[in-house]
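Recap quiz, item 2
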Amino acid sequence: MRIRPRSTAVACIGAVVALLGSACGSGEASSLSPAGDPVRGGTLVYSYNTEAQSVDPATCAIGIGVGPCQAVYGALLDYDLETGEIEPGMAESFTTEDGKAWTLKLRPGLTFSDGTPFDAAAVAFNWGRILDPALLSPSASVAKTIDWEVVDPTTLSVTSKEVNYQLDFGLTEALAYIASPTAIEALGADFGNNPVGAGPFTLTSWARGTEMILDRNPTYWDQPRPYVDRLVLKTIPADDQRFNALQAGEVDVMAVTVQKYAARAEGAGMKVTSAPLLGGTGFRLSHRGPLADPDVRTAIAKLIDNEQIMNAVYPGEPVASGFTPEDSPLYDPGSAWPERDVQGAQKLLDDYRSRTGSGDIELTYVLTAGSPVLSQTAELIQSQLQQVDGLRVRIVPLEGAAFAAAMTSGDYDLIVSGLGGTHPDNLYKVFRTGGSSNNSGYSNPTVDEALDLTHTSNDPAVVESAYKTAINELVATNAYRFWRHARTDLISPANVHGVEVAYQYWFRPELVWIQQ
Amino acid sequence: MMYRAVARHAAKLVSVLALVSVTTFLLLETIPGDRLASVLPEGATPEMRAAAEERFGLNGSLPERFFSWLGSALQGDLGRSMQSQVPVTDSILERLPVTLELATLSILLALLIAIPVGVYSGYRPGGLVDRIATFLCSITLSIPSFLLGVLLVFVFAVTLSALPVTGWTPLSEGLVPHIRSLVLPVVTLAAVETVGFIRLLRNDMVATLQQDFVLSARARGLSTPRILLVHALRPSAFSLLTVMGVSLGRLIGGTVIVETLFSLPGLGTLVITAITGRDFLLVQGIVLVVAVAYVLLNALVDLTYPLLDPRVRTS
């Protein structure tokens, strides 16, 4: 049995953070016979459309790198999307009474796969390493908000520079993965390709761009897990080709964000586990240039026709009528998108142009190149926005990293964007003034105050209310607009058990077993 | 005479490679935008930027950076990938054998089909074989390789379960699994090459078979297979050899679609990863290696001309 101890002060946050997880669900194939108890053995093949660049814990903790990192290192804490609980992982607990002074307790006797101890000093070493500018770690934005001190081999005292009752979420992602300091020092720059951790699997081989093979770590603390002998992470870029491989029995867990495969899979007797992601498929609005004006942003919001986009691009999928789905605990009628109103938008734009004396407004719509779905959507949005006089939209497709560069530098007017992750604390990074992912220039005292409250309060009702306030204000000020709630589907054959969405496209491979 | 030809080619090779290295370096220097944007995390500090510039060798003047890069490249050190931190040389050497095998087998398969079909079509232009070959060539040419790959996957992998959908099984894991993983990508790549080879060889054969020496051979009573395969094929293979060299070079640098479709760990998927990840050092290394391979292959093809036609040797 997995144990789930929680600090009294922090446990109550879990209920609030189940906000989006409540809609998690899985479709079981009706022809399944009872699964019985988990059994060991077999090879599990997981496939997604891209792969990690490195398995260095300093750089892999955010984004697609989470998969192999979680498998090799195990996380200090795990976030359960379904319950909203933050659960023990490699750490037994992470507790606080005041949101500033935290205590991290590690499991006793943990060792890395190279035989060296996984102790508080190893955690301190890894977190200190994240702060090294040369490593370019995206986790540094979290690490620099805390100080820490080793108390004894299994205890680390952590002090948050600000009151933050959601710091434990940081230990499920940015600060989650701890590697062997001995191996890091021995391997230097090559460590990310030869990682040594204490997680459920060890890296056996990596054919970059195609597959990574990991084998069961015999010294993993939570025996008899992991159940499968071998985990293969296979990169198959095209969704159709990935689904073909699933049907042909070459893949056991397929991750996909397009919902059409779920129905096809269930029709073929497979299982589908789904989890909503924060936000949706849409675009973020810059708050610079003409878009710094609230009327221009409102005009854009009034011109977008979600129904048309969904019917044309995602037929059959539900249309997002607002920021939060109606079955979410965070749902509030105030988070509904404004009604479509072309004449109203025209008036707002005309007012803006006469007020500022500006001519036609030209906006860039930045998207990732090579996606037919995104290109089709971009053209629809272009035509919807250009229904008013004086507004022109230029579509700018950019390759992967160029797109990322435009995003991080804020070099866009409108940019295709999700919010990342599943936990609503991501709102803090994206929309809080000075947030580490706030590249749009958005700054709103009401949102800042509400998001600060989500960190400084340990009252679930207050936190929930604060999230609703922040979301309603984001909608009212047109900071972000989407037409489809983002969702990850994990599809697997009926004999593969224990697959649940964790993080964005990932699952917990140590919990999965294959019915023989 | 042969030594002089080799020396002449070597001199040309050196000048081409020098040009390639300068162009490759400058090409990436002229790309607009922040070259570190793809590696710097959100909220990167000035210290992080400075550290990244130093790590990736972007903090000197242009000539300093070029000679530093060239000096290292001549010693086989092309730097480390900006994204994965793997040495560029290691990444390329790891992927090159896959692409080379894929390209070589595709060319061999194409030749295996094209030579008999092209020779016979040239021998009997307008005959049944020629008409069937022309028809099939037109169909194959009208199907892009990515679509052909998907069709082959649907039939042979999904429907018949005879071959794997994707993936690469190294030879070390057994000959049969290795060949099974190769069949669909090789057939997909070979299809277009085969069409080109057949058309080329057929037309050259038609022209060759009208030459006086062929009439003379016939008059001497030589058998048709001997005339076709010994006397007519060699001079007709001149263009085929040239195109084959170009095709092989092109395939080494251009199996991108097929490698991506079948998830093969070759240079094609590496270059896609490098370009989409704005991994300039990796792109630079791959371009250099592909360019060198291309130049070497064509030099090799040039050197084989005299073997096919002694007149080239004397000229």
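Chain A is about 30% helix and 25% strand.
Chain A touches chain B at residues 53-54, 56, 133-134, 136-138, 140-141, 189-190, 192-193, 207-211, 234-238, 240-241, 244-245, 247-250, 399-402, 404-405, 408-409, 436-437, 439 (CB under 8 Å).
End of item.
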